[in-house]
Design goal:
Chain lengths: 249, 241, 83
């Protein structure tokens, strides 16, 4: 089997290496991807259209907002699917085969974590809110926020983390994030534009059209952050405890 | 001579493209050949990052900076050099308007579009990885293994049991009843000789159905007394044909 | 410029080593941790290429959450792998 599977692998590798000779030069300014009108449009017009310095955030949340919305929905669906797959798969207490767990939380670990979790969460908010001018945004901030809850679960136990952020609330927050995203899109639709056409929000915000897009992007990123935070924690909580939501890692 | 030139060009000038191909192949091979499901998933993730590496590679431009505006193009930055159409407002504050960058200026920034596409791909990738791991845990609970070959053996055994159609089952049940009645009526020695003849039949059938040679002795070892189930197997083979 | 290219080459070769190693080892826990190393090397490479947002996402998601989720799963399954 291992030898047999080498045949397609080598065939594909040969084809790809062959194709690699036709790729543009390394760092070529005039390569097709860099010469394309659409990417030059994004580089040139982001500052004028949205006043956002970070082009990646602007393209992510504004120009390609529809795409990002459904990516968020995909993350949400994955979280729901993990819940549905693992719920009730194990009855009672599972036996561990290879690992013995000491249930007593370690003093040094818990105190260190107590110190660094507020820092992580503030950094998550910073990344989320500062995504317009520096690397960052909803996805990264949300993952950092979810990681802080996972850290609680790792250093104490899963019950403690779940008492802070129960799974029901997680799914509520995740749905709220998508609703926030879609709500901003619908609001701009009701104000006379198209779906996710943030510029129309100038009618309700006391700012110019460009700054309306800027602030609507922040709202959208917060929605993405909500969903990603909740789903990352749900993923961990379910996978660590096989859906029983207790006695996790 | 041109061949060595080509290889050196591939290995020196386009090492990124080469490594992306190598990583992609490693991931693909792991997905095909590794038998452990977790290893397969790690291979899938390597495959995915290889493709992301390719996308990020084509976004690179020489002498370009990251896709965040430099201070002179930043809509909110303090401009060192103001554009020509800057106007001074009544309050005396310098008002600057962001300008549309032309192609020459756009060459200073690397291409943001592949970055955007890949950023969402990474997050969706971890969501799919979580889903796949949940399925792995479920499989482990159901079958007690995540090794593919062991799992396939077990699945085949389960399939054998489940692949009989309801009509077939009813017919078998009827036959079972009849045979039981006959067995009651006849003497023990006769039934033994009959079952032995039947067994020779079943072994003949199972040798014709190649992919499950292992199954027979195991099932026999488990329940040697249960003749009807043994009888049902050649039927199922027949119905498959 | 030469320094950056050397860095690039070094990371690229380490990437292949990490990818092969994470598939080579029989202990799945080691495999998951080496995969985290692989993700972080990838993150370094992208940061060097100027894709800062992608690198940041990979550092948080690939090296952080993926590894934790993999370790959590392996904790519930068998740790040894046959190949």
């Amino acid at each position: 089997m291992k030898v047999l599977s080498l045949i397609p692998v080598i065939a594909i590798g040969f084809l790809l290496i062959w194709a690699a000779q036709d790729f543009p030069e390394w760092g070529d300014v005039n390569s097709p991807a860099s010469k394309a009108a659409v990417s030059n449009h994004f580089i040139g017009n982001t500052g004028v259209d949205t006043e956002v310095p970070n082009m990646v955030t602007a393209v992510l949340a504004d120009y390609r907002g529809f795409d990002t919305m459904f990516e968020t929905v995909v993350v949400f669906i994955a979280g729901m699917a993990v819940l549905a797959i693992l719920k009730g798969s194990v009855k009672g207490n599972a036996k561990r085969k290879d690992h013995e767990v000491d249930n007593e939380p370690d003093l040094i670990v818990t105190n260190t974590v107590r110190l660094i979790i507020p820092v992580i969460q503030i950094f998550a908010f910073y990344v989320l809110a500062h995504g317009h001018v520096s690397p960052g945004g909803g996805f990264q901030g949300g993952v950092l926020m979810g990681a802080s809850f996972i850290l609680i679960a790792l250093s104490w136990d899963l019950e403690k983390a779940l008492s802070r952020f129960p799974v029901e609330k997680c799914m509520l927050v995740a749905a709220l994030g998508i609703l926030l995203y879609a709500g901003i899109g619908l609001l701009s639709m009701f104000l006379g534009g198209e779906f996710l056409d943030y510029a129309e929000l100038e009618k309700v915000l006391p700012v110019s059209r460009e700054m309306a897009r800027y602030h609507a992007m922040l709202g959208v990123e917060i929605g993405v952050g909500f969903t990603v935070t909740a789903i990352m924690f749900v993923l961990y909580a379910n996978l660590a405890s096989e859906g029983r939501l207790k006695e996790g890692l | 001579m041109p061949e060595t030139n080509m290889i050196s060009e591939l290995l020196v000038e386009r090492l990124n493209y080469c490594i992306y191909v190598v990583l992609l192949l490693i991931g693909l091979w792991a997905m095909l050949a590794k038998r452990n499901l977790i290893k397969k998933l790690i291979g899938m993730s390597i495959f995915q990052t290889a493709i992301i590496l390719f996308y990020v590679s084509i976004a690179v431009k020489d002498e370009a900076t990251i896709p965040i505006y430099l201070p002179e193009h930043d809509p909110h930055g303090n401009h060192a050099e103001l554009p020509d159409d800057a106007e001074v407002s009544e309050s005396g504050k310098v008002q600057h308007r962001p300008v549309i960058l032309d192609r020459e200026a756009a060459k200073k920034y690397s291409n943001p579009l592949p970055h955007v596409l890949m950023l969402t791909a990474i997050v969706v990738g971890v969501a799919t990885l979580g889903l796949a791991l949940a399925l792995c845990q479920r499989i482990y609970r159901g079958y007690g293994t995540i090794e593919e070959d062991v799992l396939l053996d077990k699945l085949e055994r389960v399939d054998e049991r489940a692949s009989i159609s309801p009509i077939e089952k009813r017919r078998q049940n009827a036959r079972r009843k009849r045979s039981r009645q006959k067995a009651k009526a006849k003497s023990i020695t006769q039934s033994v000789s009959r079952s032995s003849s039947k067994e020779s039949k079943t072994t003949g059938k199972s040798s014709s159905s190649k992919p499950k040679p292992k199954r027979k002795p195991v099932a026999k070892g488990k329940k040697p007394v249960n003749k009807p189930s043994e009888k049902s197997k050649p039927e199922s083979v027949k119905s498959k044909k | 410029m030469i320094g950056l290219e050397l860095f690039n080459t070094f990371i690229l070769l380490l990437l292949v080593v990490a990818a092969v190693a994470s598939l080579w080892v029989k202990d799945l826990l080691v495999s998951a941790v080496v995969f985290g190393v692989y993700s972080f090397l990838m993150c370094l490479l992208w940061a060097e290429m100027g894709a800062v947002d992608v690198a940041f996402t990979e550092a948080t998601v690939g090296a952080g959450i993926s590894t934790v989720v993999l370790v959590a799963t392996i904790f519930n399954l068998r740790r040894k792998s046959n190949d």
